[in-house]
Amino acid sequence: MSELEQYRQEIDAIDQDLTRLFEARLKTVLKVGEYKIQHDLPVLDASREQKVIEKNVGRLEDKQFEEELTKFFQSMMDITKETQTKMMDKKVN
Q1: Which residue, 64, 74, 78, 86, is the most exposed by fewest CB within 10 angstroms?
Q2: Quick one: average pLDDT of 76-84?
Q3: Separation of alpha carbons 7 and 2, rounded Å
Q4: How far is Cα 83 from Cα 81, in angstroms, rounded to an integer?
Q5: Cα-Cα-Cα-Cα dihedral of 79, 83, 88, 90, to 10°?
Q6: pTM of this prediction?
Q7: Contact assessment for residue 77 and residue 23, using Cβ atoms and an 8 Å cutoff
Q8: How far, in Å, CA of 77 to CA of 79, rounded?
């Protein structure tokens, strides 16, 4: 096995974990959406988003990835807001 193939296998294993965790996150996001419907809360909580980003940037061991991690979490939260909005729209209509 070449060095490149080995790195690609490592990435595949990481991607498998990321997929499992992302699915778990989205399932929890839907539960949050249900709570927000019941309590008449908006999808967007900008202060919460900022706290999530700051908390996770603080967890970085290698600070050179701060910009990339910020983009990653912002993108993920954009997806989760869309998911929550779709779910909430279905429940209301």
Answers
A1: 64
A2: 95
A3: 9
A4: 5
A5: 140
A6: 0.88
A7: no
A8: 5
